[in-house]
């Protein structure tokens, strides 16, 4: 479980995040929407410990963690907009390398099973990453998160630049990751995809969470209208 309690962040005198309260329970997918500059990436960077909060707390499984806390690495995986992996290594080699870095040793068969579970076609397992599409790289990134046994997955703009088929595959995969008990938080501009895969949706504006909704309670059209009213 991931929680922000009255989390605030100033850049100099600029208040980028103001008293954010947010909880992502196991099994939940929380989508953060908001215009450019609303504070979504700042929120993710605070959870990752890349930046220190000016005020407030971050809790993982009900325990407060500081920016340098090693437990973040153990519990949290991050899938950035463009997943950075080694282009000259194959999918299996990348997965093996990053799993080992996290202290996990897997057999070849287990590595294959993680990649297959995350939807990477078997013909790509031994291929170099340099030829992979964005969606294929993302699948390897998610396989690494699964192999590291990360219970919390943070994503920034995961569907930007994905074609409709890759977006549909991503949606199925994220729902499965959550159904397996993970907590997933993503920043996105994709309103329709947010309704398709989220359990919870938050709309941010100028560093504040101004609406929180259950995805099941709203249609994509109504969410779009609400979003447009807020900006
Ligand atoms: N390192 C920084 N120094 C100063 N201001 C910053 C810094 N990082 C972000 N900001 C400002 O904080 C505000 C929130 O930025 P943030 O990147 O969190 O927004 P966002 O919602 O993720 O936007 P986008 O959708 O464009 O990624 C913006 O006004 C931004 O200019």
TrEMBL record:
Where is the chain membrane-spanning? Answer: none
* SMART domains cross-referenced by the UniProt entry: AAA (SM00382)
Q: Which InterPro entries match?
A: AAA+_ATPase, ABC_transporter-like_ATP-bd, ABC_transporter-like_CS, ABC_Transporter_VariousFunc, P-loop_NTPase
Q: Name one Pfam family in it.
A: ABC_tran
Q: Which UniProt keywords apply?
A: ATP-binding, Nucleotide-binding, Transport
- On whether Transport is a keyword of this UniProt record, the answer is yes
UniProt name for this protein: ABC transporter ATP-binding protein
């Amino acid at each position: 479980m991931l929680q922000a309690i009255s989390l605030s962040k100033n850049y100099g005198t600029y208040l980028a995040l103001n008293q954010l309260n947010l909880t992502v329970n196991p099994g939940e997918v929380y989508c953060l929407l908001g215009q450019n500059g609303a504070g979504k990436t700042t929120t993710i960077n605070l959870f990752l410990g890349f930046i220190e909060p000016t005020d407030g707390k971050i809790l993982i499984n009900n325990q407060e963690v500081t920016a340098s806390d090693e437990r973040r690495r153990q519990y949290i995986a991050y899938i950035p907009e463009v997943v950075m992996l080694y282009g000259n290594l194959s999918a299996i080699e990348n997965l093996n390398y990053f799993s080992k870095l996290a202290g996990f040793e897997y057999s070849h068969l287990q590595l294959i099973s993680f990649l297959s579970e995350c939807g990477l076609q078997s013909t790509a397992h031994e291929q170099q990453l340099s030829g992979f599409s964005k969606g294929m790289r993302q699948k390897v990134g998610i396989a690494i998160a699964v192999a590291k046994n990360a219970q919390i997955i943070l994503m920034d703009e995961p569907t930007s630049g994905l074609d409709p088929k890759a977006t549909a595959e991503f949606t199925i995969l994220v729902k499965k990751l959550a159904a397996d008990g993970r907590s997933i938080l993503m920043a996105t501009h994709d309103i329709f995809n947010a309704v398709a895969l989220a359990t919870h949706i938050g709309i941010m504006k100028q560093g504040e969470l101004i609406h929180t909704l259950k995805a099941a309670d709203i249609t994509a059209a109504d969410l779009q209208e609400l979003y447009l009213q807020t900006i």
